[in-house]
Write a structure and sequence with these properties.
GGCT-like_sf, about 40% strand, about 140 residues, AIG2-like_dom, 5 strands, Hypothetical upf0131 protein ytfp, single chain, five-stranded mixed barrel, alpha+beta, GGCT-like
Length: about 140
Amino acid sequence: MIAPDPPPAAHLPFFVYGTLRPGEPNHGLFLRGRTAREEPGRLPDAVLYDGPGYPYAVEAPGGQVRGELVGALPEAYEDLLADLDRLEEYAPGDPRNLYERVVRDVVRADGSAVRAWVYLAAPRVADRLRASGTPLDGGDWLARR
């Protein structure tokens, strides 16, 4: 389901599903000390693909990706958003993007849904992954080990 982007002032949580998850290398580098809360969540209608050391989520009916919902500290939000955009090599409207930052409904452990920022594979990357990528069974990056 495509949700319209919220106004820029909206401080939505982030849904992270790869190297930003607890225990993964980018969690400590980017999130430590900058979050108010972290909780399990799942992104419905998406499939997780293995990438070159990091995963890509691609929209696909019936799939699901497991990860965490991360709420940034209010005073850290803008800098964190900019840092995550750089990490994910995302710039609005750039056709070279590896990821697109979009708003999606993410399901919490209690079954309730919350709108969150999600970095999905950019269209050209998603097309390549659908054609010849390796989906990760169960949609859980941490289970690949």
